[in-house]
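Example for tutorial group B:
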C-alpha cells in the first residue's frame, strides 16, 4: 500500500485542531496535532500521538506533563504557527495552569500528567491523566483533506 494513499485515506476523517504544549524549564514548546482522543471517564484519561522524530517527544518525556488546547475557528493562525506553515507575527499568548502552558482563549483545554506512554510504529502514544480542564462557547477549527474549515451545524426539521 502506498504511503500517500494511506495518508489521503486518513485525511477523509474530519477532525478538530489542537495545539499540544509543554514547558521544560522556562521554555514553552508547542505543536499542532489532530491525533487526540478521549480514552476513559474513570479515571479521566486522554491520548495524544507524537511522531518519534518530532522535537516535542523528548520535551513531553522530560516535563512529564502536557496540555491539549482545542482551537476555535478564529485561531487558524495559531495552528499554522505551530505547524510551521506561517509564523504568527504578534506571537502566541499562553496562560499557565499549574505551570503547564495552554493557548489563551482556546475553545477548550485539557491539562495532564503523563500517565503512560507506548511506542507504536513510528509514533509514541502518550496517555494523559487529566487534572484540569476549561472550556468556552464557540465553534471549533476543523481539518479535512489537508485543509482548514469551519464547523456548520446541521439543522433538523
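The residue assignment follows.
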Amino acid at each position: 500500500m502506498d504511503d500517500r494513499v494511506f495518508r489521503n485515506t486518513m485525511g477523509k476523517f474530519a477532525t478538530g485542531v489542537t495545539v499540544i504544549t509543554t514547558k521544560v524549564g522556562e521554555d514553552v514548546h508547542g505543536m499542532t496535532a489532530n491525533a487526540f482522543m478521549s480514552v476513559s471517564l474513570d479515571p479521566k484519561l486522554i491520548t495524544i500521538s507524537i511522531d518519534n522524530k518530532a522535537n516535542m517527544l523528548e520535551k513531553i518525556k522530560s516535563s512529564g506533563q502536557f496540555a491539549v488546547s482545542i482551537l476555535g475557528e478564529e485561531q487558524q493562525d495559531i495552528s499554522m504557527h505551530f505547524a510551521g506553515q506561517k509564523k504568527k507575527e504578534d506571537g502566541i499568548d499562553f496562560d499557565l495552569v499549574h505551570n503547564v502552558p495552554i493557548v489563551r482563549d482556546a475553545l477548550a483545554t485539557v491539562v495532564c500528567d503523563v500517565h503512560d506512554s507506548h511506542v507504536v510504529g513510528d509514533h509514541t502514544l502518550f496517555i494523559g491523566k487529566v487534572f484540569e480542564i476549561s472550556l468556552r462557547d464557540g465553534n471549533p477549527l476543523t481539518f479535512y483533506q489537508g485543509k482548514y474549515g469551519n464547523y456548520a451545524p446541521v439543522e433538523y426539521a
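DSSP finds three helices and twelve strands in the chain. Compare this with the pattern of hydrophobic and polar residues in the output above.
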